[in-house]
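Bench log. Compound arrived from synthesis this morning; before running ITC I wanted a structural hypothesis for how glutathione sits in the protein. Inputs:
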Amino acid sequence: MLTKLMAGLRACLSGEASSPAPAPRTAPENAADAPRVEIYSSAFCPYCIRARRLLAAKKVDYVLYDVDGDYARRREMMERSRGHSVPQIFIGGQPIGGCDELVALERAGRLDALLAGA
Ligand SMILES: N[C@@H](CCC(=O)N[C@@H](CS)C(=O)NCC(=O)O)C(=O)O
């Protein structure tokens, strides 16, 4: 248990925590029929920052849920995603996983289609 916690902490600290996440986009630039993108996130989580950067680079609007200190929101995240780490990302209501899964979809050339609702 302690080993797992330490590994998680190390992973967090070894990331890009020093650079801030981009602000969530507020101007709705997604196509009107594009699926809703939601991300459960924590302020100092490098995986969250990375995932949000990727979405921002693609000019994707998303709904951001900050789970820091919000136990109800974190519980909702765990129930919806069946995951316990942040970020947890949903596209069109479907859980796609965390940052690694988002990046894997991008590398596989499948993310744009998902974001377009194809
Ligand atoms: N593979 C995951 C790693 C995410 C991760 O380790 N997040 C850390 C925060 S930086 C976390 O939530 N740790 C707590 C836990 O795993 O319960 C991803 O790509 O999203």
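What the model suggests: The two ends are 41 Å apart (CA to CA). The pocket of glutathione is lined by residues 8, 11-12, 45-47, 84-87, 98-100 (CB under 6 Å).
ITC booked for Thursday regardless.
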